[in-house]
């Protein structure tokens, strides 16, 4: 691959053009999941369990079916009863049976909001009325929500056949603990014995939702020959196709998925909830079916990420060198195994170079919705514990909190806690930029405190396909298989324009449907600009090679005597007196040189550089109300090379604010029956504009040499440090550490009262 | 189901008529009867602002208004904000400042921002933040949105001075 440093000056990459899908989005014309309609369409709705845990004794749908206007009613009996089977899909392995049971309960409802039946009718009102006519008889069972209560002996069991994996001995009895994982190195006992200072803490977080503003929605139409069309909002049209086909037991070839615009996802739209149900309803009725979730359904039956308990013990020498670390992570998985505790474990100590450590992770099922990925899944929770403990250590040693991170922070050549050896990373540069930022040395006011915290995310590559087609006037179309969740169309067009030597306005980026482009993994893991961008760049490079060959044919010059620069072929042979051939001129003559100019590249991109963030937060405590306000916030991140800096800043600012919400306000609150008490944006309060200051996003550009433009993923790192950055700032302001999130006013008041 | 009511109203300056069930919201009528899908439903409870429209010159969440209440009223939606082929300065500034990521909350934010600038051409940052507190955006962290609104306000003031 070309060395980034050898690249000539970039003309498009690194600039801030207006995004190609922007005008449609500011005029209301862009079509999101719920904006699509089909002639003859009917409306589907889901009947959901009112109980957190219950055996489904019987479901009687006779009355619902008899209601005029009702066209179809489905229950688990209309879906194949699938065997337990792990399969690779998207970012991680999924269990087919669990996925199917989450879409439609079979035998037991495992959380309040779990789907038990669905109807489709001529209008949403009729569908709603029909739901109430479906009679479900339940045998209510004891439930468990809290992660440690679910781990305790004698806890209500969700799954009779769940035996803990990863223990030294196979357990004798089933439990709610799905898995134990462990990462360790060195000699922990010797490490702690050599330590001169030890800090310990127990940190608790609650389940929080991704909180995308667009509820899940789809329109699905299956015709009588079994061929289906799906329009839906998701983070991956291929993921929707794979999951829907598997859950329904039909061939992927029979499903064509067209991606709608997506109104936010943050990981929460990497799974299916509605599409298989709408397809089953469409199959039964023979009509297109539209389904749209309400906000309450989004909270009660999708996402969130885990609530967790994290225990951290650190041992250090007097000079601040950390010599031993023990971390225990207990994560809620929700109704089915699969919390992000694996990634939580792998990232927990990833920013530090520690000789002796042990990290133990527990994946625990509870009577809550099955967790879904949420931006750097698992990492913010473990970072909250570890970065709070590192702060306590700095305090105990009288060290500057950035200095202790510089001393212990990873550098190139260090073997990461999760395995590989770091190279070309920018953590030390990021710390240096944070220390040099005027925020770090600015004075604080009364009742104010300052916190700093670091964070890490792997970033990923993976399978991507891109096609570049040259138009007859010399412009280009770039087609990829990744939904544009935050400006990726702009970055795709920019990278293609850079290689081709075109102005970015001449390149039209398209998010293609599953029948029009080769397979691409979903938009997740901060992979799209890196991996799909690499496929785009390579396809554009193939086009350039072809254009040079065609210019050579026209000039009768060998291809090695032709250079591509500024969107035109230049003849290097001094004996030829020819003017450069522009892309437009070559396109106009393509019929004479071999026909249409087009290239497709399918790759499994490797070499995604990991990302590091360092955040500085100032808070002010209102001692009367216990309200914590963020008064200043700076987020520093190494971003590789920023392709579109404005959208990179936007990712950093958005991630930081989600983390601030997690730290201060957001949480699932359950009543005694295990029902969520705050399933709406009034009571589940995400940050609003007036809660926040401007977020200063500082980009540190340490190029990723394994990407043609030096890019690395940027979307996930910024949610990792804020939980601890805010908590450390609150500690500074209160003089006492709060180790339970959210640090909401009643909890802060309680601390103030105890002082 | 109940009998449908005939509604006559004005949307973005055009007279329109439609039939509505008594329980249907203005938001659903705009989206399903009039095919104006620019206003979005994010919550259905007036907490997210994605469905913001103007009703007789007042900013409302259209999910909290019944369609039948639109009778003889004047409704303005995001679809009416650009004049012909020309974007409103707020729309232009949202583009220039990268003040949108997924874009789902954008129509509501634009309608709400226009309502603010129509009545307060020179808002402070704090005033913009409080005015837009009813419009949730989960992607941007609001920073670029606030800057875009402030910049559009400055440009509109300049245009007024020139005029």
Structure, described:
The complex is a heterodimer of chains A (755) and B (163). The radius of gyration of chain A is 27 Å and the shape is globular. Chain A has three domains: 33-142 and 210-301, Aldehyde oxidase/xanthine dehydrogenase, a/b hammerhead (Aldehyde Oxidoreductase, domain 3, Alpha-Beta Complex); 378-459 and 609-754, Aldehyde Oxidoreductase, domain 4 (2-Layer Sandwich), CATH 3.30.365.10; 461-605, Aldehyde oxidase/xanthine dehydrogenase, molybdopterin binding domain (Aldehyde Oxidoreductase, domain 4). Chain A contains 21 helices and 28 strands. In chain A, helix 11 packs parallel to helix 20. In chain A, the strands form seven sheets. Chain A has a seven-stranded mixed sheet with strand order 3-7-1-14-11-12-13, sandwiched between helices. In chain A, strands 9-17-16-15-10 form a five-stranded mixed sheet, with helices on both faces. Chain A has a four-stranded mixed sheet with strand order 18-26-27-28, sandwiched between helices. The longest helix of chain A has 28 residues, at 528-555. Chain B has helices spanning 26-33, 89-96, 106-119, 125-131, 143-162; strands spanning 5-11, 14-20, 52-55, 58-61, 74-76. Chain B is globular. Chains A and B meet through helix 1 and helix 19 of A and helix 2, helix 3, helix 4 and helix 5 of B.
């Amino acid at each position: 691959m070309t060395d980034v440093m050898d690249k000539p000056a970039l003309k498009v990459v690194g600039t801030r053009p207006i995004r190609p899908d922007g005008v449609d989005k500011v005029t209301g014309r862009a079509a999101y999941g719920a904006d699509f309609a089909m002639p003859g369409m009917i409306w589907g709705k889901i009947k959901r369990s009112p109980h957190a845990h219950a055996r489904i004794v019987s479901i009687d749908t006779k009355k619902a079916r008899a209601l005029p206007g009702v066209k179809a009613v489905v229950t688990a009996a209309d879906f194949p009863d699938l065997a337990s089977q792990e399969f690779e899909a998207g970012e991680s392995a999924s269990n087919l049976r669990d996925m199917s049971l989450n879409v439609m309960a079979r035998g037991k409802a495992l959380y309040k909001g779990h789907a038990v039946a669905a109807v489709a009718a001529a209008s949403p009102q009729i569908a709603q009325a029909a739901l109430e006519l479906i009679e479900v008889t339940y045998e209510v069972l004891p439930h468990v929500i809290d992660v440690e209560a679910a781990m305790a002996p004698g806890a209500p069991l969700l799954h009779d056949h769940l035996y803990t994996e990863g223990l030294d001995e196979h357990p004798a009895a089933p439990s709610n603990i799905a898995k134990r994982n462990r990462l360790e190195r060195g000699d922990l006992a010797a490490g702690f014995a050599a330590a001169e200072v030890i800090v310990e803490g127990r940190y608790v977080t609650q389940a929080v939702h991704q909180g995308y503003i667009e509820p899940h929605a789809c329109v699905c139409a299956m015709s009588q020959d079994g061929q289906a069309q799906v329009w839906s909002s998701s983070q991956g049209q291929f993921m929707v196709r794979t999951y829907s086909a598997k859950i329904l037991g039909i061939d992927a070839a029979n499903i064509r998925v067209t991606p709608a615009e997506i109104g936010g996802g943050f990981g929460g739209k990497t799974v299916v909830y509605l599409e298989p149900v709408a397809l089953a309803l469409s199959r039964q009725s023979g009509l297109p079916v539209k389904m749209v979730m309400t906000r309450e359904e989004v909270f009660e039956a999708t996402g969130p990420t885990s609530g967790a308990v994290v225990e951290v013990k650190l041992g250090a020498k007097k000079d601040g060198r950390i010599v031993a670390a023990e971390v225990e992570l207990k994560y809620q998985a929700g109704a089915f195994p699969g919390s992000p505790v694996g990634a939580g474990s792998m990232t927990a100590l990833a920013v530090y170079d520690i000789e002796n450590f042990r990290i133990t992770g527990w994946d625990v099922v509870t009577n809550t919705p099955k967790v879904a990925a949420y931006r750097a899944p698992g990492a913010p929770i473990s970072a909250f514990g570890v970065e709070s403990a590192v702060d306590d250590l700095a305090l105990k040693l009288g060290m500057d909190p950035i200095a202790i991170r510089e001393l212990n922070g990873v550098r190139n050549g260090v073997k990461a806690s999760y395995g590989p050896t770091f190279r070309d990373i920018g953590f030390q540069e990021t710390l240096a930029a944070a220390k040099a930022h005027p925020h770090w040395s600015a004075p604080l006011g009364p009742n104010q405190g300052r916190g700093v915290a670091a964070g890490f995310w792997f970033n990923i590559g993976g399978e991507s396909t891109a096609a570049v087609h040259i138009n007859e006037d010399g412009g280009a179309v770039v087609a990829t298989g990744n939904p544009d969740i935050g400006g990726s169309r702009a970055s795709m067009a920019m990278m293609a324009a850079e290689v081709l030597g075109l102005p970015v306005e001449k390149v039209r980026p398209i998010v293609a449907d599953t029948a029009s482009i080769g397979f691409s993994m979903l938009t997740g893991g901060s992979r799209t600009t890196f991996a799909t961008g690499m496929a785009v760049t390579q396809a554009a490079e193939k086009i350039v090679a072809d254009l040079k060959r065609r210019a050579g044919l026209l000039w009768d010059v060998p291809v090695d005597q032709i250079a591509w620069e500024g969107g035109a072929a230049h003849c290097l042979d001094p004996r030829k007196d020819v003017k450069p051939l522009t892309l437009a001129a070559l396109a106009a003559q393509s019929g004479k040189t071999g026909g249409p100019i087009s290239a497709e590249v399918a790759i499994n991109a490797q070499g995604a550089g990991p990302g590091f963030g360092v955040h500085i937060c100032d808070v002010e405590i209102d001692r009367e109300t216990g309200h914590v306000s963020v008064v200043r916030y700076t987020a520093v991140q190494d971003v590789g090379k920023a392709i579109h800096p404005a959208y990179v800043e936007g990712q950093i600012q958005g991630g930081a604010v989600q983390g601030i919400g997690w730290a201060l306000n957001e949480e699932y609150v359950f009543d005694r029956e295990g029902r969520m008490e705050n399933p709406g944006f009034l009571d589940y309060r995400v940050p609003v504009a007036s809660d926040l200051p401007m977020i200063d996003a500082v980009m540190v550009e340490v190029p990723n040499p394994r990407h043609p433009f030096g890019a690395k993923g940027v979307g996930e790192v910024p949610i990792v440090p804020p939980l601890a950055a805010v908590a450390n700032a609150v500690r500074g302001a209160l003089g006492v550490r709060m180790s339970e999130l959210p640090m909401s006013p009643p909890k802060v008041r309680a601390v103030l009262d105890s002082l | 189901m109940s009998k449908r009511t005939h509604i006559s109203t004005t949307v973005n300056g055009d007279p329109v008529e439609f039939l509505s069930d008594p329980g249907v919201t203005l938001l659903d009528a705009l989206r399903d009867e009039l095919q104006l899908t620019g206003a979005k439903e994010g919550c259905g409870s007036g907490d997210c602002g994605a469905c913001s429209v103007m009703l007789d010159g007042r900013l409302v969440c259209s999910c909290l208004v019944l369609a039948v209440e639109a009778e003889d009223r004047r409704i303005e939606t995001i679809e009416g904000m650009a004049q012909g082929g020309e974007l409103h300065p707020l729309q232009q500034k949202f583009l220039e400042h990268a003040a949108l990521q997924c874009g789902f909350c954008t129509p509501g934010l634009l309608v709400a921002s226009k309502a603010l600038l129509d009545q307060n051409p020179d808002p402070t940052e704090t005033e913009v933040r409080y005015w837009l507190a009813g419009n949730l955006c989960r992607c941007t962290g609001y920073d670029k949105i606030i800057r875009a609104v402030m910049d559009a306000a400055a440009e509109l003031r300049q245009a007024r001075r020139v005029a």
